[in-house]
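tool=predict chain=A
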Amino acid sequence: MAESQYQALVAAGGLAAVLREACPGSDIDLRDAPGAFGGRVATVSEGGRAVYVMPQGGQPRFSVRHVLNGTYLSHVATTELAEVTGCAAAWLGGATPRELAAAWPFADFVDVADAYESGDRIEFAWQLKRADRTHGLHEFVEAAMREPRLRRLHPFTSHWWMSFRVAPREHRLGGPWVRAVGGGRFSVTEARKPHHDGHDAAEAVRACVAELDRLGVR
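tool=predict ok
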């Protein structure tokens, strides 16, 4: 989508009007979003399903999230308005995650949806972290998921740091702490104080396991 078309979208009535045309009968909610182009974000919903769309400020790009019964299953992006409206209509129309991914490859969140359906909250958390590219931790997450000691723990993020709990509602562990420091390197610390030299992904996993040993977590 060209930037001129992107800007014309707002001038000609906005994202809500486009979604309303693509998804007739669905509810449209507009809210303020300071980082979005035009300062607005749209959510189109029907029943227990919803699609959250935020035009990203300063560039012709849309952030899209698919929601099921109040739970976010995706965090994807596209520059094509037709992909936004097409996948929104399909999702609200009852498409399964696999059907959606087949028709709209940019919106592939099958692994996340499978984990959600399984009811395994730890696996669901890992798949969400694997799909999330906003913290720069993707390489570390991929390596950590291959380490059984870490895969048994519940991952979470706080202020750009990733850490682990022994169970989803258990707050006792809270360590080790991992943060991306650039160039495919990761800081691993007892507290949230980054070392900017960092480790590569495999080294960071080993450092996390060593910290679990120190904490007495098996």
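Residues 201-215 form the longest helix (15 residues). The mean pLDDT is 86.
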